[in-house]
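REQUEST ID: PR-0412
SUBMITTED BY: lab tech R.K.
PRIORITY: routine
TASK: structure prediction, single protein chain
INPUT:
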Amino acid sequence: IRHGWVWVFSLLIFFFNYFLLPGGLSYVLLLTPLWIYLLYATNRLKTTLVLLLPLVIYAFIHLLNGVNVGYYFVSLSMISALVFFVFAVYFLVNNYPINLDVIFRDIAILNFILTVGCLPLLFLPAIRETVWYMVPLTDNLRLIPRLKLFASEAAHYSFLFAPIAIYFYSRVLFFKVSNPLLALVIVTVPLILSFSLGVLLGLAISGLLTCCVYFNRIFASRSKRMGVVLTALGLSGLFILAFYLFPGNPLFFRIHNIFNGHDTSARGRTYEAFILANKIAALKSYWWGIGPGQLKLIARDLVIQYYYYFKIPETIRIPNAAAETIAYFGYFGFAIRMLTELYLFVRTRVYANPYRLWLFLFVFIYQFTGSYITNVSEYIIWILVFSNVFPEYARSFSSSSKPSKQL
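STATUS: complete
OUTPUT:
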């Protein structure tokens, strides 16, 4: 495997995975024959096929409960394609010397250059929506353009950029780096321009938890303690100053709407998603769900009636990966999802690596507030979480400690 091809492929997937494709489709899915070939060439195909058996069992149960066969197998094929992708890329990341540091740095720099290049497009309405998301954030708030580059929406863009942002944030926290301020600006400005509060809040909460776990390591030196304290005080001061000088700014207005329950996006991505998922699963089976691809058929009216849509959208879905799992695969499928994540957390010793721990906490939290079960970006993050990437972050253990295990 040549590093040049891995580099080019990584950049193309990050920036153009969904570009010019219909909703739900991605270039990763279109490359399924390549993933199958790689698994076959590395003698991993049989193992992957065995791991697809739960989907076969679910298909048998769903067919007995009654499904639209056409829609069902289209969705099942997409999920199976993601399984091939996950295991192929997982094998490559863990068995070949792929320089993720170079890839992450180049993505961050190119992303920042594109971000700066997108600013003039705000004044060109004809092409503005190519890279800016022009959908209202919340009720009674004027339209704010949000950076999405070539993704389908701003939240998807910022979610995919999260692993790169966490990488640079954790480097500043755990290592002595040159020009830390420049690195922080390069990764933070695009996130702020995307204005995805779900991703930003997920990064903040997961980062705070990681800092608590590695408190002694982060605050080992006096200079690091002073730097973190001054940064925290500076941010707090800016927040308080902005609150008093600009109380009606979009950020505070949306936070106010969220806490008062007036933010339809926040409600729809959190507790309302689980209410809907429970109602939808009940249409067939609480334990097994309604099956993939059936939401648009048997639950469309239920979703429309629940939200009282003024303008009915073309695509009806649950914008929450955990809740969507309940709807499609029932509470048994949701339990499998949670147990698998926790088992792999222990099995691959995620807690021994600050970067992987931060990434795990972020994606674990975010699955309850967004994403969807065929989201390629989420699976890329899970691959990084459970792979032995960036071993330089690994926590110092005694010589008797075992290294991180592979699956």
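NOTES: Residues 48 and 83 are 8 Å apart (CA to CA).
REVIEWED BY: pending
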